[in-house]
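Deadline looming. Please check this record:
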Amino acid sequence: MNRKVVKAANILIDIALSDDVGEGDITTDNIIPEGTKRKAIMVAKADGVIAGLPIAEMVFKKLDPDLKWNVLVQEGEKVKNGDTLVEFEGSYRALLTGERTALNFLQRLSGIATMSAKYADAVKDFQTVILDTRKTLPGFNKLDKYAVKTGGANNHRHGLHDMAMIKDNHIEVAGGITAAVNAVRSKVEIGIKIEVETTTLAQVQEAIDAKADIIMLDNMDNETMRKAVKLIAGRAKVEASGNMTFERLHDVAATGVDYISIGALTHSVTALDISQRIED
């Protein structure tokens, strides 16, 4: 994980533990003697791709800095139902108090990585790259996008600050695609990419003429996308977006688009089933 992901994880873990533990774990703290140590494992209860083990470790080490953590699988590794992911040892209180928070992070991120791997694999025979979107859980932008990359897909822009995305509302206010592109280009730093959302071939042509870096084909049928790719002819990168179900991926990639962006990678993810077990 890079520095920005670690920083975001630290903030989110503090919030999560504050929400869940509050003034203390009144069950564990009144049953488990202070100073008791135990061993535990985490086990996959479904097939998938793992992401977030370092974050789970961070959760437990907030509660027990002396925790021993031994991972048995790597980030991005495919696992089977029943595989042991990690062995760890530390304060029994910490193992129980941190369990749900650690699993919440690990299950969500592994679910994202699993779906990302599935979608990326579906287009492996094409040049097309699967991208995420900004449809992330609020506050989880960096973690969700880390999980997407861990699963083998790629990141679109991380936020409003790192790429210009000209959509229909911007076009309407500016008075057209050309005016919108020119307005942005005259004010942003050199190197900032400009992407334009289009819904018709006429708009695609205007985006080409305006020298957009990326042209998004929004909610187009496959035949129209094929025509748009031919029209663009390599003068800009091409992104397909809107109603990108898993069943459509192969046919959309076959049109020749460079990217397919899919909000479902992060906004409709199913958490990967993982459990924690205390060892005797």
